[in-house]
Every structure is written in structure tokens, then in C-alpha cells.
Design goal:
single chain, alpha+beta, 2 domains, four-stranded antiparallel sheet
């Protein structure tokens, strides 16, 4: 899924500067769970508020493994309390499905159009064995705006933050 395909999934009426949070799950959800998660995310963002004002929000499970939350702050700014409410939803999903959305030591690559996770400690081994290459796409979960999500969420390993931490022959 490249930028154009991703673009079709995201709300096009949100500003490029809309804030983004990406939560990577410790495993992929099965189809039934995906429907349930998306329903809960919809329930959350359709009622999302900041100090009583409705937040223009959106959230969805992408690649069956990433919860992406977007807030367009053009009219209503997302405050600490409204950010906390989104984190509560993520924590609730963790408990419900016995998963982890906050493990920063797992790195996810896109191989054969499927999200595949590797512990950070095994990335070099995977490169050495040819399982991943400098051109393998990495999910760069540090995107903070819709524009960054579209342009920099999926990047070749060689162009990612991880490139300086591994050696690619």
C-alpha cells in the first residue's frame, strides 16, 4: 500500500496538518476483531470532545495491526484531556484483546503486502540473512501529521530512522 492507496483510506477533508497518533499492535487482528475494533474506534471518535466541543476526529485499524487516530484541529484544538481519552480507548483495546500497543522494541516491515514484525534485536540478523533489504518498507510510526503519515509512514529501510542503527551490505 503506497501513498495513493493510503490516501484513499484517510479522510480527505482533514487538513495536512491534522495531528496523528499511530499505535502499533503486538499482533495482527483477525477479521472479526478488526470489525469490532473499528466499531469501537468509530464510537470513540464520533463522540470525541475537547472541553465540551466536538473534535473533528477519525480512527481506524490499518493493515489489521495499526490503530491510526487523527484529529483535525482547524476548529477545535485537542487538549491533554482529549488526548487522554484516546489513550484510554487504546488501553481498553489492549485489555479486551490481550495485546500491547506500546511496545517500542518491535519493528514492523511491509513484506508481500503484509505487516510483519521483528524484535529490534533481530533486525540485523534479518538483514544479514536477506529476509529484509535496504529497500524493504518500514512502518515509521513516528508520523505526527496527516501529511507525514501519507509521505513518510512507509519508507524504505535505507531512508528510515533505523538505517543508522544497522549495517546494510
Amino acid at each position: 500500500m503506497m501513498t495513493n492507496e493510503l490516501k484513499t483510506l484517510l479522510p480527505d477533508d482533514f487538513a495536512d496538518s491534522a495531528r496523528v497518533w499511530v499505535y502499533q499492535c503486538s499482533r495482527a487482528f483477525i477479521e472479526k476483531e478488526e470489525r469490532e475494533v473499528n466499531e469501537q474506534l468509530y464510537q470513540f471518535y464520533s463522540q470525541w470532545q475537547a472541553h465540551g466541543a466536538p473534535v473533528k476526529g477519525w480512527a481506524k485499524l490499518l493493515f489489521r495491526q495499526f490503530v491510526v487516530v487523527i484529529a483535525d484541529e482547524t476548529d477545535v484544538e485537542v487538549t491533554g484531556c482529549s488526548t487522554d481519552s484516546s489513550v484510554r480507548v487504546i488501553k481498553s483495546l489492549e485489555r479486551q484483546y490481550d495485546v500491547n500497543f506500546f511496545d517500542r522494541m518491535m519493528i514492523t516491515f511491509l513484506r508481500n503486502n503484509k505487516a510483519e514484525m521483528l524484535p529490534f534485536t533481530q533486525v540485523q540478523y534479518a538483514i544479514d540473512k536477506g529476509y529484509i533489504t535496504k529497500d524493504t518498507l518500514l512502518f515509521n510510526n513516528i508520523a505526527t501529521t496527516k501529511k507525514e503519515l501519507l509521505e513518510k509512514w512507509l519508507v524504505p529501510l535505507s531512508e528510515s530512522w533505523l538505517a543508522s542503527r544497522v549495517s546494510m551490505a
